[in-house]
Write a structure and sequence with these properties.
The protein has 259 residues and is α/β, with parallel strands linked by helices. It contains nine helices and eight strands. It has a single domain, classed as Dihydropteroate synthase-like (TIM Barrel). The chain binds ligand 8Y7.
Length: 259
């Protein structure tokens, strides 16, 4: 899944893909590089990012979705937590919802039930503005898995078909470096939920910390994390660097074919 941020404040490509033309050309490039899906987001969730109104978010994402539907033959995922944005995005042609709040914002669960599209439920401890201040767990794997199991149950109880759901431990969302590493090392524990596992590890600050590289040049590290996640069962990998990730996963796939 290739990331297409249409926000002026996203940490990596923030502000660089704001025009419609630029957004479409970046998505086209990711499609040619082998992405299977494009994730469009209009509100940055990085720590300290400002909140965006419904109208602002709609203004950012809807024209891009409409345009991509015409120009690019790939399913579009809408990265949002707002019910109104979910509804408008799916009406405009989005095929999936990626919600870092796991449908906990007002009206989101009802919207997803009405829309009947696949949904990624992600774990986050706290809120984007403060989540990295002092993340705390007794057992991070049990707690993240328990949260996701609860959200899956809530969705099914509300009328969402279980086979539309996927789960994501939410790397970097209210997690220390140690929490992130533990979740990745034991990612196969999420197989217990019997749903596709999605991960986002691309260019996250845990890489800068592992590599002691504050300049953000963590491409090789990002690709390695993607491979490790795949080896531990992840099915959907959300990345900024599509070509490099596809290359690595193609090699991994070739090896894994042999017993
Ligand atoms: C994730 C995500 C972000 C992630 C899912 C970033 C929107 C921060 N990260 N969605 N979104 N999983 N499902 O660094 O890890 O890209 S935004």
């Amino acid at each position: 899944m290739g990331v297409l941020n249409v926000t002026p404040d996203s940490f990596f490509d923030g502000g660089r893909y704001l025009s419609l033309e630029d957004a479409v050309s970046r998505a086209g490039k990711m499609a040619r590089e082998g992405a299977d899906m494009i994730d469009i987001g209009g509100e940055s969730t990085r720590p300290g990012a400002e909140r965006v109104s419904v109208d602002q978010e709609l203004e950012r994402v809807i024209p891009v979705i409409e345009c991509l539907r015409r120009e690019i033959d790939l399913p579009i995922s809408i990265d949002t937590s707002k019910a109104e944005v979910m509804r408008a995005a799916v009406a405009a042609g989005a095929a999936m919802i990626n919600d870092v709040y796991a449908l906990r914002q007002p009206g989101a669960l009802e919207a997803a039930v009405d829309l009947r599209v696949p949904v990624c439920l992600m774990h986050m401890q706290g809120e984007p503005g403060t989540m990295q201040a002092a993340p705390q767990y007794d057992n991070v794997i049990d707690e993240v898995q328990g949260f996701l199991a609860q959200r899956v149950d809530a969705c099914v109880a509300a009328g969402l078909a279980r086979d539309l759901l996927m789960v994501d431990p939410g790397f970097g969302f209210g997690k220390s470096l140690e929490h992130n590493l533990s979740l990745l090392r034991h990612l196969d524990r999420f197989d217990d939920l019997d749903l596709p596992v999605m991960v986002g590890l691309s260019r996250k600050s845990m890489l800068g910390r592992i590599l002691d590289r504050p300049d953000g040049k963590v491409l090789v590290g990002s690709v390695v994390l993607a491979m490790l996640a795949c080896q531990r069962g992840a099915r959907i990998i959300r990345v900024h660097d599509v070509a490099e990730t596809v290359e690595a996963l193609t090699v991994l796939g070739a090896v894994e074919k042999y017993v």
